[in-house]
Design brief:
Elements lengths: L4 H16 L5 E15 L4 E2 L26 E17 L2 E9 L4 E3 L6 E2 L4 E2 L11 H5 L8 E11 L3 E9 L21 E11 L2 E11 L9 E12 L4 E12 L7 E2 L7 E2 L3 E14 L2 E15 L8 E15 L4 E10 L8 E2 L19 H4 L16 E11 L3 E11 L9 E4 L4 E4 L7 E13 L4 E12 L14 E2 L2 E11 L1
Parallel strand pairs: 18-20
Antiparallel strand pairs: 1-3, 1-28, 2-27, 3-4, 3-5, 4-8, 6-7, 8-9, 9-10, 10-11, 11-12, 12-13, 13-16, 14-15, 16-17, 17-18, 18-19, 19-21, 21-22, 22-25, 23-24, 25-26, 26-28
Length: about 500
Amino acid sequence: MSKQMPKLLAMAVLLLLPVVSQALPIDWHGSFGVDSTLISDYRRIKAKALNSNPATDLGTQEVPLDSGSKGSASWQSYIFKLSPTMVINDAATFFGELSTGYANGGYLGDSAQTDAAAGTTVNSTTPVGANGAPLYYHNQARGQSVFVKKAYLELYSDTATYMIGRHATEWALGGIYNDGSDTWDRHASSRDGITMKLKIGNFHVSPFWSKVSNVGYTDATNTKEYGASLLYDNQERDIAFGIMYVKKSSGSNSSEYTTTMNGGAAIAIGETNLTVTDLYLKKVFGKFDFAAEVPLMSGDLGKTTAANAITTYSAKAFLLQGNYKWTDTWTVGLDLGQVSGHDGSTSKFSALYLNPNFQVANLLFRYNMTALGTANKAVSVYDSSITNARYYKLRSSYNSEKWTFDSALIFAKALEVAKTGAFAYNHTTNKIFTAHTNQSDNLGTEIDFNTKYHWNKEISIGTGLGYLLTGDYFSYTDNASKSNEAKSSLLVQINTAVTF
């Protein structure tokens, strides 16, 4: 027998071990969707003069034009979430979620010819022959990075459930903390840490600790978040209320977060110490129900306006959703909201930005219009939040076995606007400026219609229509010689999604 035979047999046994070992069951589920969106007059203005220069006109609301000076924009995107679940034993389960690209997906057309993140052409040195024909009619998919959105272990004990690892969280209406569980949610509130869920009668207590950034190995450079939520949920009396209390802090040498609010070069905000107090109430009265969320922010925001001055933070919002189930198929509702803005002060900051998943309209607040004015997709069109606004939404919904029809009328006004001779804050570009003209507080009135056809339990096809009667807030340029006129904007969208 060869001297190498024992070694070969030992290696074969080792290779076969995973085959003969007991396999753990894995449940694969997730969602995939593709949509096509068209927005006419996405700049929402009729320009009377040359475009404002955002570098010098810090107060302008004018959205820049992309190459070709087109006034309308269209794109096709996809969203992808793949979530494996592995039951280890009666005391432990592993959960994960994988996605690709930024905001849980990407754009159709992100092929091998273009680097979507950098906005540059790749493989430009590859021999392509005359007129570049091979690269023109042969398209190949460019490799996409896979992102681990969730990877955590749930441990079950007699007294509590423990979530350890990277997991998502949601509270109240999802105005601040939103887990991104809906099919078309692009973002999620993520925690890298541990959450304990404890239930005592109708009370639910959830303390947590999370690491937000890991720049270094000491508290001087890192950012952490900790707190707890307390929820009383009595389903027999149809009432729920609670409070979430969160502390978030960064070390003095942290470089994770920077600001350009003063219009200059980016500076690290350094040490921060913020408190989030989020109140929640829900009540059902027969066919009528309502829910309210009141998030309150306070603390020190760091050196946001100057390299040697600490900015205090005080912001708040009030969100209300009411529904009346008229019949088995018809539901009418009213949404109210007020989200604080910033008045331009350099010593304190008072603007609150809601979670990008929390939206009330098809056009208003939903898209980052600045991203539509640039070919660089590193600036995401889905990074947009409700801020500095008071809104009212009247809505109705018809639901049948196969169809859902939604309609809504939204009115919105800005809380903080520019006033001649005073400091003001541009909530779109996050810049403080001295105003030279007055700004209107009218954000506009929007009419929305959405339909969804449920092909079957897993597959749906939807359409969306939004028409914004744009308010004069968006025509502001802070320059009397470059005054613009507000122009109405139209959105048309079609989408299809599958959940499994």
